[in-house]
């Protein structure tokens, strides 16, 4: 399986923004991109007889999608397997399961009425990029930290220079980034003013020539142009991407957070305080994790 993270990793391996030849990077066989991300190394299948609770066990551990064989040869077996041969498959994602649970929220009201803070769904370790971070540098950060998206926060005197921040994420003997950019990054992101989101999906539908120029842009400029569709010439995802921030508070109910994620079709909801400062994140993995724990304890 190839994901956008695999593609981002492949781009990031190309070097500095001015040195990346996207035409060359994008002309390689797709097989050479497989496995750049950890998720791409394993292909999970779910037997059609598997219960939703058993599906939650897998999705609550950070697996985002799995294949369901249409013609299963294991009719009396349920559960998750690494492989099961079939001529046809359907894809089941975290969002599919969350949408299903949202449709049956009345049956889960005792759980979903509780706040995400109370349920322990908020993850406080957040790695954020500042608005003046270059796109190529943000890609490198996301690659190093294995992130699908990063919050964009306002710069302050306390933020760490981007090169130094990346070194804190990897073996100091590994040269990850040596560039002239003075953009800055906050290794946690907490307590910073949230102003945007930079996601791997922002790059969808962007032709190579435009993406080549975009690598030099500040991430906040890139996301603003993406929201206007100026990068997309084919009416693709970028032209339809909404840049409205999807946020909640720690006291927001789980049901409301689920609604926000499903309605906006986003894979994470940023948690902010009442001044708009970043507190943490609630991802689909976190929502499904706490729902599974609640269902098992009931």
Separation of termini? 36 Å
Report the biggest beta sheet as strand number plus sense, adding barrel if it closes.
5 strands, mixed
How many strand elements? 12
Looking at CATH, which topology of one domain would you report?
A: CBS-domain
| Name of the level-1 CATH class of one domain | Alpha Beta
**Rg over alpha carbons:** 20 Å
| Arithmetic mean of pLDDT | 79
CATH A-level architecture of one domain: Roll
**Helix- and strand-based class?**
alpha+beta
- Proportion of residues in helical segments: 25-40%
* Strand line-up in the sheet with most strands: 7-8-5-6-9
The low-confidence parts are 166-187, 232-242
Number of helices: 13
Order of helices and strands: HHEHEEEHHHEHEEHEEHHHEHEEH
Described by the principal axes of the CA atoms, the overall outline is flat
Range of strand content: 15-25%
Keywords: CBS domain, Repeat
Organism: Stephania japonica
Protein name: CBS domain-containing protein
Pfam families: CBS
SSE layout:
Elements: H1 4-12, H2 22-25, E1 45-46, H3 52-59, E2 65-69, E3 80-81, E4 89-93, H4 94-103, H5 109-112, H6 116-119, E5 128-130, H7 135-145, E6 149-153, E7 160-161, H8 162-167, E8 184-186, E9 194-199, H9 208-214, H10 219-228, H11 237-240, E10 247-248, H12 254-264, E11 268-272, E12 278-283, H13 284-297
Parallel strand pairs: 5-6, 10-11
Antiparallel strand pairs: 1-3, 2-4, 5-8, 6-9, 7-8, 11-12
Domain CBS: 241-298
Protein name: CBS domain-containing protein
Pfam families: CBS (PF00571)
């Amino acid at each position: 399986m190839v994901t956008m993270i695999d593609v981002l990793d492949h781009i990031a391996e190309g070097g500095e923004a001015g040195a990346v030849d996207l035409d060359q990077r994008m002309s390689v066989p797709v097989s050479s991109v497989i496995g750049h991300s950890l998720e791409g190394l394993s292909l999970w299948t779910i037997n059609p007889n598997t219960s939703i609770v058993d599906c939650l066990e897998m999705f609550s551990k950070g697996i985002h999608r799995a294949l369901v064989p249409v013609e299963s040869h294991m009719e009396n077996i349920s559960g998750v397997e690494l492989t099961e041969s079939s001529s046809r498959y359907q894809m089941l994602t975290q969002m599919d399961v969350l949408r299903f649970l949202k449709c049956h929220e009345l049956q889960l009201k005792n759980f979903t009425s509780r706040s995400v803070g109370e349920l322990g769904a908020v993850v406080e370790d957040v790695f954020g990029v500042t608005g003046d971070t270059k796109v190529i540098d943000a890609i490198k950060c996301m690659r190093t930290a294995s992130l699908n998206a990063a919050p964009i926060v306002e710069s302050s005197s306390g933020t760490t220079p981007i090169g130094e921040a990346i070194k804190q994420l990897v073996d100091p003997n590994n040269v990850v980034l040596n560039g002239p950019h003075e953009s800055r990054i906050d290794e946690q992101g907490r307590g910073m003013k949230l102003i945007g989101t930079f996601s791997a999906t922002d790059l969808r539908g962007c032709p190579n020539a435009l993406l080549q120029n975009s690598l030099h842009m500040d991430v906040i400029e890139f996301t603003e142009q993406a929201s206007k569709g100026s990068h997309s010439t084919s009416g693709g995802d970028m032209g339809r991407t909404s840049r409205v921030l999807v946020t909640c508070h720690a006291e927001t109910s789980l049901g409301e957070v689920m609604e926000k994620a499903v309605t906006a079709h986003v894979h994470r909801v940023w948690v902010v305080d009442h001044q708009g400062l970043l507190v943490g994140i609630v991802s689909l993995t976190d929502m499904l994790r706490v729902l599974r724990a609640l269902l098992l304890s009931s």
